Amino acid sequence: MNLPDWWKIDPCEPFVLGPREFPGRIWTASGCFAYGLTGHEISSRGFTSPYEGLGAVVSKTVTPMARTGNPMPRLCELPTGALNSIGLENVGFDEFLASVLPELERRGVPTVVSLAATRPDEFGVMVAALQMAGADYEHWHGVEINLSCPNVAEGGHDFGRDPETVARCVAAARKALPDRALLAKLTPNVADIASLAKAAAESGADAVSVINTVVGLEVDLTSGRPVLPRRYGGYSGPGVLPIALAKVDEIVQKAGVPVVGVGGIGGAQDALKFFALGAEAVQVGTAQMEDPFAAARIAADLSG
Amino acid sequence: MNRFETIPKTRRCQAFITINEPVSSGLIRLEIEVDQEMDFLPGQFAMLNLMGPRKRTFGRPFSILACSGNRVEFLYRVVGGGTGDLAGLKPGHPLTMLGPLGTPFPAPVPGQPAVLLAGGVGLPPVLAWWHRFSRTDDRAFFGARDPGDLPWDLLPVSWDASVDAQGETPVGRVAWQGLVTELAERELTGMDLPPSMVLACGPIPLLEAAGRFAEGRGWDCFVSMEEHMGCGYGACKGCVIPIRSDGQPEAEGRNATCCQEGPIFRAEEILWKQIR
Ligand SMILES: Cc1cc2nc3c(=O)[nH]c(=O)nc-3n(C[C@H](O)[C@H](O)[C@H](O)COP(=O)(O)OP(=O)(O)OC[C@H]3O[C@@H](n4cnc5c(N)ncnc54)[C@H](O)[C@@H]3O)c2cc1C
Ligand SMILES: Cc1cc2nc3c(=O)[nH]c(=O)nc-3n(C[C@H](O)[C@H](O)[C@H](O)COP(=O)(O)O)c2cc1C
Ligand code: FES
Fold first, then answer.
1. Does residue A277 form part of some domain?
2. Chain A: residue nearest B236 by CA?
3. What are B175-215's pLDDT values in tens digits?
4. Which one of A3, A219, B113, B187 has the largest count of C-beta atoms within 10 Å of its C-beta?
5. Closest among A280, A299, A290 to A141, alpha carbons compared
């Protein structure tokens, strides 16, 4: 692949984010590559595993209790991506700590653990337990707190809509996380994302992951009703790339906060656009579902 | 389930079409050549996607009919945008394939005959099992909409066929009118069969009926389930099927991924009432 002249870094070289060195800058996004234990045995020409060259796998978001998720259908394909309404189906935090995290370590998967909570202080409790369980782990590099989930304590609105709440969530997690990277994943469904990023950084986040999915809806014309049983879904894939790039730029320009770019990345060119705007690393989500090697191919293409 | 000791390795391949031709009024046979040698077990599937501008966000799941060397065969029906595009393509057109995926049908058990039931586009995994494993005691039944929808050339002569509506059949072949499970019931009742194993693929009502058919006799029954899929390899939880969890009451079911824990399930595991 022809790389632009300004591109000087090798994304498969280690880089430092906050208190931690990551093995690389091309990551997979939460929810699109399970917990990082799936697909190890898949091969493709030129690759021995889909994990080749990855800087981190952001695990599926884990909640305090196991969740069965939303009713089917949970996915709705669109010409420019998809809507999803998985409903955070996951094994629950205890099970994650007991069986998933040790296995990730055993397999040497560079891991960022994605967490969701129901109250801001719960992030602190979860991170403290994680810190206890994973203190000696070599491949656990960080925590990404998913702020695009309902805050049960405060009326069910997303944590990520109000700078003060973001600050409280981040501060609670930071206090319990001395030596791993802390990322705050922000929703794009807000008017002023820069002030949220600023609040996160000032409370101790090493970077913000931007963006989570964009709220969307699709109508089934035969029935005249929304396709997804919960009406709204999260829009992701190629169609959200310009939205993600704009949000990243807004944060870099206005808040000067380190950013991990996510949204609509399908190939190396898309990833380069985030790096051009100043992103520290990127995450590949929806594209990883269609091709388990999507992120690995981008890493290979960009390391020249 | 008597699982296989080794499941063939999943590969992500570049491919191109070698054959894409109708074999009946509703079914199209697709053969592709992939960039690596492939193997599969009957019941496994692959995710196919077009390359270039008509590439979709998600691949489409299709059961593997046959596989030898670099050639992989499927049978499909046009139902929407993706299969519609596929039907219009000529040999040489590039595709991508991720496969084989999922849990296969069980291997044959000595002394336990198999009863195979397939409806419509549910033919490939059942036919694949037949070609790989069938023994003289095994019986197979295939149901289609009408004789024109039956891929006669692919169907072994020993198979019994049923149709929803009568029409012309090729010389020497017959199709009984009615449901395929009724045909099996009729043919097998009164025969002194040892406990058998039922393997079924087709529409949900057929699978449910196959489960009841087996349950009434105290036989094992394995069904191939269909659900919409995103990734096909267990990464997204977009394809779940409600199943019983061990030792729990029915209401306490759990979600199983159709793509990874399935698509083959024991019929008695499925919480049929919760299926859309
Ligand atoms: C394990 C498995 C094996 C299958 N084997 C075969 C086979 O051998 N031959 C065959 O013709 N079909 C098979 N199907 C069904 C086939 O996947 C769908 O017909 C196909 O995905 C439709 O795509 P489309 O773009 O034409 O339809 P559209 O309706 O335009 O597709 C929209 C979305 O819905 C999904 N979708 C629509 N119908 C189905 C369906 N019935 N099952 C799953 N997803 C669906 C599509 O994948 C796509 O994501 C199988 C499905 C599964 C789950
Ligand atoms: C099926 C699916 C599941 C997702 N699950 C999560 C999740 O559990 N936690 C989270 O923070 N983001 C989740 N996301 C959002 C992605 O991580 C990502 O932010 C978003 O999809 C945009 O990137 P993309 O266009 O590359 O997919 C999910 C996305 C998809 C498509
Ligand atoms: S389709 Fe993604 S988990 Fe089954």
1. yes
2. A32
3. 888 898 988 888 888 888 888 999 999 999 999 999 999 99
4. B113
5. A280
Q: Is position A280 within any domain?
A: yes
Domains of chain B with CATH codes: 11-101 (2.40.30.10), 114-274 (3.40.50.80)
**Within a 10 A sphere around the Cβ of B102, how many other Cβ atoms?**
31
Is residue A83 included in any domain, yes or no? no
State the number of CA atoms in the 13 A half-sphere of B94 facing the CB: 8
CA angle B106, B110, B113 (to 5 degrees): 75
From atom 4 of ligand 1, which residue's Cα is the shortest distance away?
B62
User: What domain count does chain A have?
Assistant: 1
Query: What is the value of pTM for the model shown?
Result: 0.96
Maximum distance among all alpha carbons in chain A? 56
**Domain carrying residue A168:** 15-69+92-214+237-302
H/E run at residue A21: strand A20-22
- Cβ-based burial of A218 (10 A; exposed 0-12, middle 13-18, buried ≥19): middle
Specify the higher pLDDT residue, B2 or A5: A5
| 3-state DSSP assignment of residue A124 | helix
Residue type, B201: C
ipTM of the complex: 0.95
E strand or H helix at A84, and its extent? strand A81-84
Instruction: For residue A45, give the nearest of B36, B98, B255 by CB distance.
Output: B36
Residue-wise pLDDT tens digits, A265-291 = 999 999 999 999 999 999 999 999 999
Phi-psi region of A198 (alpha: psi -120 to 50; beta: other; left: phi over 0): alpha
Cβ neighbour number for residue A164 with a 10 Å cutoff: 10
Q: Say yes or no for a CB contact (<8 Å) between B237 and A74.
A: yes
What's the CATH code of the domain at A38?
3.20.20.70
Residue whose pair of structure tokens reads 């449910």 in the numeric block: B208
Q: Answer whether residue A76 is part of any domain.
A: no
Pocket of ligand 1 (CB under 6 A): A 77; B 45, 58, 60-63, 74-77, 79-84, 121, 124, 226-229, 263
Q: How far apart are the first and last CA of chain B?
A: 25
Residues of chain B positioned with their CB less than 8 A from the CB of A82: 57-58, 230
- Verify whether the Cβ–Cβ distance B57 to A72 is below 8 Å: no
Instruction: Look up residue B247 and give its amino acid.
Output: G
